[in-house]
Amino acid sequence: MQKKYVSAILMFLLCCQITNAQQPQKPNSVEIYNQIQKLNFLGSVLYIAAHPDDENTRLISYLSNEQKARTGYLSLTRGDGGQNLIGTQLRELLGVIRTQELIEARKIDGGEQLFSRANDFGFSKNPTETLEIWDKEKVLADVIWAIRKFQPDVIVNRFDHRSPGTTHGHHTSSAMLSVESFELANNPTIFPEQLQFVKPWQTKRQFFNTSWWFYGTIEKFNAADKKNLIALETGVYYAGLGKSNQEIAALSRSRHQSQGFGSTGARGEETEYLEFINGDALKEKKSLFEGIDTSWNRVKGGKVIGDLLTAIAAEFNHNNPSASIPNLAKAYTMMKALDENHWAPLKSAAIKKIIAACSGLYLEAVAQNQEATPGSTIKLKLEAINRSSAPIQLMSVTTLPNENTTPQNRDLKNNILNNINLDLKLPESINYTQPYWLRENGTVGMYAVNQQQNIGIPDIIREAKVVFNIQINGIEIPFERTIVYKYNDDVKGEVYNYLDIVPEVTTSIVDKVLLFKDTKIKYVGVKIKAGKDAVKGNLQLELPQSWNVSPKSIPFNILKKGTEQIVYFEVIAPNKSEEAVAKSVAIIDNKRFDKEQIIINYDHITKQQVLKSAEAKCIKTDLKTNGERIAYIMGAGDEVPSSLTQLGYTVTLLKPEEITPEKLENFDVVMTGVRAYNTVTALANKQTILFDFVKGGKTMLVQYNTAGDLITENIAPYPLKLSRDRVTEEDAEVRFLAPNHPVLNFPNKITAKDFQGWKQEQGLYYPSEYDKAFIPILSSNDKGETPKNGALLIAPYGKGHYIYTGLSFFRELPEGVTGAYKLISNIISLKSSETIPPQKIKN
């Protein structure tokens, strides 16, 4: 019975029992026993794909928990190019969210997370484009680095390397790079600079994790020749937990909340198929590790450790885990004595956690405040308690990164709490807390990470730590704890955050896009936030000489850390059309502080601090608008409403329950946010009201939705069928199908130039079939493809206009793309334009 349930429980229970990712682990005896079992399996699998949520959590959970293998997931990107169903963050900020979601997913399914430096630049239709934008050599180097560092016995690819053009170009590229790396990783002449940290490594065998989906239908898959496949029965039921492997996998996949991948667990038999690609073929096809020694015998001098661990597991007392401490401490000493630099360090780190768990040893370092600045002194409260009869002493504590050691020499008696107050002086050179891959500017396809050893590290690198130097059974063992900050919330209870190192002052320009269209003068607000007490200096707003800024600087004096102040600069735009980047800079004692602090805080992930250049885009343009009043129905989340406000429109966010004929009388235009018809269920019952609004002479603009999960098929007053058509090349030629239509002429003349400078993509999920009442306005396509005409469809309906668009306004407007502003202004102005018969428009 033990084999059937304990191996899956550890990370699952650990994640589900806590509300904060940084909260300390408190494993029970079943979890401890699972850890001990896993100590005795020395085999590893590396799963490779392109994005967060590409991974097969069923297989990862099975390999990690049932097989007890060290299982890693190498996601080449952090998912920066996706959409966001839980907030407005896009691009690198979305990548930060999805990174944390992957980390949380691995806590549930028991895997480990790795990354490359590849930037998810958006959907790509083929690997040729992908590998050009990514910089193939660098991503290949990162895959080889991951293999050499992880040393997998087996590699499993999520995607097929032989089918370019049939799926996302990133997907195929991940498999192609994995296959190319299989033998190159063992070649010392390939990326030799890595070999000062790792050694060449030859993986035993490589598979493709196929399924019926890759064959098109279940029928085709059932009829296919499977002689080259191995079948793994992954529908394991863990009786002690009352959960199936699929249910655990579903909980893991449900961590991907930003992508809407909440998943319902399944039960019963389930088979995963792996197609053999490279290496030593399987003969019996019963185990991925056939012919691989996964015992301690694979390590020189390790057999005696394996025998000891077998005895520890056999004698483990669930009612008294501390009885295992003497032998665990002995095994730890033996591991540390081994002349081996892979499995010995991995397993000794694991056994330390087991020893602490068996003794109920609780160690914690809590800061008085959640933020601190370089050079400051922070007050720490340390807690140390031994909840067993094992003889344990706290010899000393060492603070990092300053490496100061304070002797303690105190016995940790059974269940007696020890509190220690300590000051930590942070060095001036300590790095600010932020995702390390965002510290330097990268390219469209690659993040800049210059330190080889940092490449692939999944999380923020936190430097402020405390090491508790503990003696257990006469053996000294260091236990490292990252410094946290915690408080009590009346609803959530005990809430943990990590200590963040912040600049003395951060600033942010309130509006990230500043449109100068009707006036040359704007008063630009800049927010100043103090990172410490008594912050005093001068604030400057930097723009090119053609822009006039007054005053030249504004003094500030903020007494309390965390306090914010907003000041205003008068900015006069040049006479001619021009675009410029404004930068806010605080000067303190001749030192420049030019960062904006962005906090990402969702319940399902660790709170994140991101520091970006404090900038905004200033645009002087002759763009024209009319004074329409807009009701905006938010969908998955976007920043379009604030962009429309910059245009001068009055925008009201309308909740679904507020959609009534009486309420809509106050507006000229109703707009739905991105994926509103995928996420706002209540809209299904509001369509008649909305269509009557249009029929009465108003305008309705529906932004893109995906076809698979619409809350109603009647998203338009006429038949309209969405597809997966998209134009991913943002610089693709745009052709005008209805050049006389008001949307291309009033109040702004739209030309091909207005589609220059678009970001990431032109549009996505275009309708492929639509009623003849719709007038297609634009045509465009990626290289080598047929024209896509569904980007902007306009249908007269009654006295008004219904518009559906797949154009990526949700990306372009926050980026300050002038052409996108002009086009959406014309769409909004359709009510004010002359209605032209469709036949005249098309001629």
**Mean residue pLDDT:** 94
For the CA atoms, what is the radius of gyration?
A: 30 Å
Strand content: 25-35%
The helix content is 10-25%
Structural class: alpha+beta
The biggest beta sheet reads: 7 strands, mixed
Strand order of the largest sheet: 3-2-1-4-5-9-6
Low-confidence stretches: 1-19
Q: What's the number of extended β-strand segments?
A: 43
- State the end-to-end CA separation: 77 Å
Gross geometry: globular
Number of helices: 20
Oligomer status: single chain
Brief account:
23% of the residues lie in helices and 29% in strands.
Descriptors:
disordered N terminus, alpha+beta, 43 strands, globular, 20 helices, 7-stranded mixed sheet, 843 residues, 29% strand, single chain
Question: What does it look like?
Answer:
The protein has 843 residues and is an alpha+beta fold. Helix content is 23%, strand content 29%. It is built from 20 helices and 43 strands. Strand 42 (792-797) and strand 43 form a beta hairpin. Helix 2 crosses helix 5.
SSE blueprint and pairings:
Blueprint: H1 2-5, H2 9-16, H3 29-39, E1 44-49, H4 57-66, E2 70-75, H5 91-109, E3 112-115, H6 127-134, H7 136-150, E4 154-157, H8 169-184, E5 205-208, H9 218-223, E6 229-233, E7 237-238, E8 243-244, H10 245-253, E9 271-279, H11 303-314, H12 325-337, H13 343-358, E10 362-367, E11 371-372, E12 377-385, E13 392-400, E14 404-411, E15 418-425, E16 465-472, E17 475-482, E18 484-489, E19 493-498, E20 500-501, E21 505-509, E22 513-516, E23 521-530, E24 535-542, E25 548-550, E26 554-558, E27 564-572, E28 578-588, E29 591-593, E30 595-600, E31 608-613, E32 615-620, E33 629-633, H14 640-646, E34 650-653, H15 661-664, E35 669-672, H16 676-679, H17 687-695, E36 699-702, E37 720-727, E38 734-736, E39 763-770, E40 775-776, E41 778-780, E42 792-797, E43 800-805, H18 809-812, H19 818-828, H20 838-842
Parallel strand pairs: 1-2, 1-4, 2-3, 4-5, 11-20, 22-32, 33-34, 33-35, 35-36, 36-43
Antiparallel strand pairs: 5-9, 6-9, 7-8, 10-12, 12-15, 13-14, 13-16, 16-17, 18-19, 21-23, 23-27, 24-26, 24-28, 25-27, 28-29, 28-32, 30-31, 37-39, 38-41, 40-42, 42-43
Helix pairs in contact: 2-3, 2-5, 3-11, 3-13, 4-10, 5-10, 6-8, 7-8, 11-12, 12-13
